[in-house]
Amino acid sequence: MKHLSLALLATVLSMPLSAAEPTQPTEPAEIPVEGSVWDTLVPKDWDPRAEYETISKEIYGKSSPEQLEDTDRRAAQLFDAMQEAWSNAPLRQDLDDTALTLPGFVVPLEGDDKNLREFLLVPYFGACIHFPPPPRNQVVLVKMQGEGMPVDMMWDAVVIEGTLKVDSHDTEYGTAGYVLEAKSAKLFKGEQ
After folding, report:
1. H or E element that contains 85
2. CA distance 45 to 42
């Protein structure tokens, strides 16, 4: 339990706490960025740490999950509850149909030996490969136009440009809250 709880807590603590002010989308609007672009995808009033604490208290009461044994039956309850909460994390509906340039890491879904046509874009390396995956407001399903993104780019941080849609999709690696209809992909070269 200690390992699971610490992994959950690390995931929660790595989440952004604030988002940029919403904009009224036009066709297509640009997302104003204050801080990380990933912060912008999280509703301003949603606090993942508070959600974790609430769920943890419901399951463990006054005990701390870190103080209990790995075999405690509540470990599975906590994992399932956090998985459910993250799969239903709130989304920014006002961002639908906005232009977006988003850096991140690739989790491949569909393609061939040369190009990826669909993949998840996540804010940190290893997200969605290790459980639990990030909340759905931190997972973007990328659908590349044309031939797709070269497969050899999936091992590095990339920058994807396209139009963001608010549309939740369950995948084998977690739930994506957004779809990015991508027109270009390039390697990340630092602050852009």
Report:
1. helix 74-87
2. 8
DSSP assignment letter at 59:
H
Question: What CA–CA distances, in Å, run from 64 to 68, 74, 155, 185?
Answer: 7, 11, 37, 44
3-state helix, strand, coil in the chain (%, to 5): 30, 30, 40
What is the value of pTM for the model shown? 0.78
* 8 A C-beta contact, residue 88 and residue 138: no
39-122-131 Cα angle (round to 5) = 110
What DSSP state is assigned to residue 13? Answer: H
Taking only the tens place, the pLDDT of each residue in 141-162 is 999 999 999 999 999 999 999 9
User: How many Å apart are CA 132 and CA 42, to the nearest integer?
Assistant: 18
From 182, 18, 26, 180, select the one nearest 94 (Cα to Cα): 26
Q: Which secondary-structure segment (H or E) carries 96?
A: none
